Structures are given as structure tokens and as C-alpha cells.
Amino acid sequence: MTSPYPFIILTVLWAGVGVLLPIIVPKGPNRGIIQVILILTGVCCWLFWLCCYISQMNPLIGPKLDKYTVLVMARQWGNPINQTV
Amino acid sequence: MGAMFRSEEMALAQLFIQPEAAYFAISELGEAGCVQFRDLNENVNAFQRKFVSEVRRCDEMERKLRYIETEVKKDSVNIPDGSELPKAPNPREIIDLEAHLEKTEGDIKELSESAVNLKSNFLELTELRHVLEKTQVFFNEQDEANGMDTAHKALIPEDHNVSIRGRLGFVAGVINRERVPAFEKMLWRISRGNVFLRQSEIERPLEDPQTGNEHYKTVFVAFFQGEQLKTRIKKVCAGFHASLYPCPSTLIERNDMLKGVRTRLEDLNLVLNQTKDHRQRVLVSVAKELQNWSVMVSKMKAIYHTLNLFNMDVTKKCLIGECWVPCNDIPAVQKALAEGSTASALYTIITFPFLFAVMFGDSGHALIMFLFGLWMILSEKKLGPQKKSEIFNIFYGGRYIILLMGLFSFYTGLIYNDIFSKSINIFQTRWYVNTTSFNPDEEVDEIEFIPKANFIGEPYYFGIDPVWQPASNKIIFLNSYKMKLSIIFGVLHMIFGVIVSISKKYSSIILEFLPQIFLLLLLFFYLVIMMFMKWLWYSGTLDGWDPNVVNKHGSSCAPSVLIYFINMMLLSSSDANEGCDVYMFDNQRLIQFVLVAAAFVCIPVMLLGKPIYIMCSRKNQPPKPVNNKSNGDVNQGMELDEVSNADIKEVSSTTHDEGGHH
Q1: Of B470, B488, B539, Cβ closest to residue A69
Q2: Dihedrals phi, psi of B346, to nearest 5 degrees
């Protein structure tokens, strides 16, 4: 099951950049510019992550791997396969 | 401005202006008119200053304007007073203005030259006509004196007539009236009284084609005897600036000539009137713009003169000026300077590095770039005054952008999971090796993971799953992902751009903004929505274990969004694999048809709406004067008639309003 935590964490993180920071920008001649910069950064980066996350949520194809790579993966990343090769 | 009778507290201010913005900044300061610049180049010769060539160009334009003005005044064309004075022209408009002035000057010169030619021709013919008409009387008298009156002149044979004349030669011509007494005296002296001079005044003054002054003239005929006397008389005539005209000796020839001269005069008169009309038209249309042009050129010249008072920075990156300002006016000066050098490319501060990063996408290389940018910024003080090579100068000039590009590329590199083309496995890959689908003893080289069996069911938390890095079908997966990503960001950027360009006028909102945004939303944003639908609705995990059992949302039924979009535009139907739905949702084809139809309705509104609106609104109200917010523009359509002239003005003023937002 998809856990909601990554979505919440990343959204809060970029909302912090794109919404919270523009509000607390100190007053000054460049305040408007800094606000625009922060909002654009927040939106772009959040959306970039979101696209990557959603595109992998429901994979249509799987990776095609070399046999030995698979064996190494299995051993290194847990779930080792007992075999005789 | 301060109080009239009290002196103002003054401050000596130093201005640092970028060379590119200097022109506009000084233009704005000039409009504000509250600073006095100090000459920082006092010991520099006027010819060695930086903007000498520009000042010269202005001088040349001023000369042309003066010439045009004298021509306009000569024809006593009224020069209308412009209600609003234009600002200095944009530097790129200077070239237009220059070319325009050059052309106008050439036109007027050509016109006056041809007018002078025609007029001198006209003068000659008029004088000849007078000569022929006036001499008629003299010859008649002479004939009578010879005992023949005109009545029986025709009866006398021609050769007899010639034999009488043969002995008496004559010269006919026209001379200025005030010279006549001296001329007469001179003739009498050189011929010892053997010349018989008859004269008759021309009643109306004749115009001199060169100067346009009017002179009273006199027709004369000098009778004499012998060739020697003839050459002498001719010399005297040349000395007195008398113009001599051929005059046939017989009555019939004279009459023929007179007739010919009269018809030619009539023709010439017609031509003269036409050229006069044409010239009048050209001058009137020039006169309308003349004041604006003069103001623009003088402002331009003043700006360059002021810039000549500035000092160039050692690195040639900056112009330094000093000026006295009343303390109360310092805010106004700051405002003017800000207006002169506003950056219009505000949003690209982020969008450019971001789009660069989407394409760059490698954290390792990005880190190097980031550090390079950081180094340049930190050692600004040391690097700034140094002499740099041309390429390094480019990097140095864009050091902040390089820093941002590095920063964003680092982020996109993490998302792409690419660090020097290697992936890192922070959150543990979501694909696992499943013994049910994998038997290590089997004799296969490659194993393809299937979502149903090997996928945990939850995406990698941050970025692309590292399992793809060694996969041989990595390209297939990443291409599909990155293509969608570029379309999504491209469309969003376009929508953002259109929204940013919104202006406050209702006409532009309805006729420009709405059709543009609808076109984008109905076609391209729909494409983006379809992409998300595909991502969310179709999954390989829904496939059955048996390849013959097809799930409608399984991997074999996943449609191509691109094909949907192409078919949508072509209004053709799509097809699907066996057992799958043709469309993603109910009534998709109908909805797509409506979207395309609505988008196509937007196109004519977008293209024709504004011009038609402007045309209609102009019919209802008199043309407005050119607005003064933008720097003055050069009117190119000068020779057109009044109405279309106004058209051009209005159109160009509206394009001025909207340019620069994009």
C-alpha cells in the first residue's frame, strides 16, 4: 500500500519554501523579487518531484536486468537467494 | 522642488550606471530635471570623449531638421505645436529616425531641385514670350518707317524683306530694369552712337528661380550694323547679365514661335502646379512630426552630452557620474533611476536555471558547477578588477545564474538519481527479487521484472528507483517519463507566461488573454491531464498471472496519450488492443471533439479580435494623441494620408504597451 508520508513530507517541505518563506521575507526594496523567486522555486521543484513519484506509482514495465546483477541485488539488498551458481 | 526664495540643502551624489542602462537612466533623470551633473572629464578634449560619435550623429540630424524646417517655413506651411513632448527615442529607434530624416531631406532636396529647374525653364520661356510680344511693336514701327504697313506686307516677296533686313542686324533680350540706363550708356559708348536701342518694360515682376525674389525686367532690342558690332554688343549683354533670346526676323516665323512658346508655357505651368502641390503635401506631413523630431533629437543630444561628463570605470563595466541634487529630491532621482533600469526578465531568474536543470540533471556535475559559481561569487573582489579572457568573462558575468543552475541541477540530478551517472540507493529500491519468478539455475542472461511479481507496490520516495540504473531497458522507461515531464513543464510555463502578460485593459483581457489561455488549456492542458490519468489509472500490478486474461487497467491496455492527442486533433477514432477499452473514460471522444471545436473558435478571436476592436473604437472617437509613457516612436507612415497615419500611431502605441511583458 502506498504510504502517505513521502507525499506529505515533500509537500510540506516545498510548501514551506513556496508559501511560508515568501510570507516571512523581510521588508526591503527587493521583497517582491525574492517572493517571486521563492514561489517559482517551490512550485517547480514540488511538481518535479510529484511527477517522478506518480510516474512510478503504477509501473507498466519492469526493469530488465542481467542475471548476475539480479543475484548481486538480491544478496546486497536483502532477500538473498540460495543458489549454486 | 523646494521653496523659491530659500536655498536648498544640496547633496553631492555619485551615480554608478551600467553602460546599457545609462541612456535610459539619464533620459529619466532628464525628465525629472532635478540634478546637475559635474564634469568629471574636464581635462579631456571635447573630441576625445566617449560619446563623441553619437553627439556628431545628433548634430547631423539637427542639421537635417533645420534644413527641413527652413524648407517648411519657405513654403509658409504651419508647424503645429505638439501638445505633449516626446521622450528621447530608444537607441534602436535612433537608427530609424536617422534613416527617416535622411530620406525626408533627400526627398525635399530633390523636389526643390526639380522645382528650380522647372522654374528657370519657365522663366526663360516667359521672357522669350515677352521678347516676342514686345518686339512685335518695334518691328511694326520699323516696317512702317520702311514704308510698308502690315496690310500689304504679305504682298511683298520674302526675299525683298530679307534684303532690307540684311543690312540691319539686331539682338533681342531681357535685362533687369535697374541696369537699363547703364546698359544703354555702355552700348552708346562702344558703338559711338551707332546702336539703336528700343526697350519696353515688362509690367509684372518675374521670379528668380534660385532665390525666389521678384525682379522687374525690361525687354530690349538693339539694332546695329555689321558683325564686329554684334560681337561687342553680345559681350556687353553678357556683362550686364542680360539674357539674349533668338528672335526670327519675319512676322510669320515670330508668330509661329510665339504660338509654340505659349503652348509650352501652358504645359509647364501645369507641371509646375503639380510639383508645387506635391511638395506642399510632403511638407505638410513633415511639419506635423517636425516638432516631435526636433525635441527627440535635442533630448538625445543632451543625453549624450551628459554621458560625456561621466567617467568610465577601470573595468569598463560601469559609468560613474557625479551630480548635485537637492536633498529633498533624492527619492525622485532614485525613482527615475529605477525606472530607467528595470529588469523585465524577472521570472527567468528561476525559470531559466530550472529548465536548464531539467535538461542537465546530474548531481555530481551540478555540484562542480555550483562550486565554480560559488567560488566566482566569493572571490568577486579579487576577480572583479582582474583582466579576464573573453570566455571567462562570459562565465564571470553569469556567476549568479551559474550558481542557481548548479543548485537546481543538483536537485534534478537527485530526482533523476544520477550522480556522475551512478545511482544511489537511499530509500531501498522498490523492486525485489522474487524466487517464484526467478530461478537462478535457469539458463537465461537477462531477467525482466514484472510489476505484478517484483514491485513492492509503493514508489521510491525520492526520485527514480535506483534499480533502473543497471537495467537494459532504462532508456525506454526514462524516455517515456522525461517526454511527459517536458510536456508538463512546457505547458505550465506557457500558461504561466500568458497569465503574466495579462494587462488591465478589458479589451486585451477578452480578446487576447482569454482566447490564448483557452487554447492552451483546452488542447495542451488536457494533454497533461491525460498523462496524469494514465499514470494513476493504469498499472502493471493489475495484470493477471495468466497473460491471456486481460485487465482493462493493466499494462497491455495502457493507451498512448500521444496517439490520443493526435487523433483528437485529426478528429479520427482510436483503436485498442483486444479486450481493452478504446478510451480512458466515457464520452472521451465527444469531449475531445468539443475541446477541439472550442479551441478552434479561439483562433480567429485571438488573431482578428484586437484589430477589429481597434478599428471599431477608432470610428467612434477621434484619434488620441500618442501616449507619453513609452519613449518616443518614429512614425514611419509619413507619406500616407491623415487617417492611416493615425492608424499606425495608435497601433504602434498599443504594441508599445504590451511589448516587454513576455
Answers
A1: B470
A2: -65, -50
